[in-house]
Structures are given as C-alpha cells and as structure tokens.
Design a protein that fits this description.
By secondary structure, this protein is of the alpha/beta class. The chain has helices at residues 2-11, 22-31, 49-59, 92-104, and strands at residues 37-40, 65-69, 83-87. Strand 1, helix 3 and strand 2 form a beta-alpha-beta unit.
Length: 106
Amino acid sequence: MRKVFAILLTDLGCEVTQAADAADAMHRFASAPWDLLVTDLNLGSSIDGEEVARKMTRRIPRLPVLYVSSDCSAFKGEVGPNQRLLQKPIAASQFAEAVEELLATD
C-alpha cells in the first residue's frame, strides 16, 4: 500500500518521502521534517503508527497525521483535530479528500 499512497500523494502535488520502517521514518523526519505523516497503525514491529506519530508531533505539535489501517479498532488514542483515521481498503478519492483536508488545516 505504501507505493500506492506515494503515487496518490504525488498526483496531489506532494513531495513524498518513503520509509522502510518506523526507525527509518523517524530518522528521515529528524533530518527534514514533513508537512504530513501518513502511517499504518500496524507497522509489523515493536513500535506502531500511533507511537511514530506521538514522537513526531512532540517535535511539530500541529503535524497533520493520516492513519490508515485494515483494523481501526487497533487505534488506542483519540483522533485529534489534525488527524484522520481511514479504514482500508480506501478509495483513492477518500484518501485524496483526507489529505487535502489535513493539509488545509496546517
């Protein structure tokens, strides 16, 4: 799904940075912060998408976050004003709408 999301974001005019895993994402973010974080809740590692977002929003509190998951019940927190949670499968139009909405709140 990461590649599909990258294509959709590029089509929306976004510059995309892809990360192989949570550690890679946090390293890349530390060297060049992003305008939007798109993350799955389940990253297949000891750290999940919510924890990645928490760490990044400590640095940039208003960082928009788009969570995606095939199991939204895995979301433990509350969806904040700069955040959206989408259930997979996600229509391209639904993804685009969420991204545009989040970037407009910045």
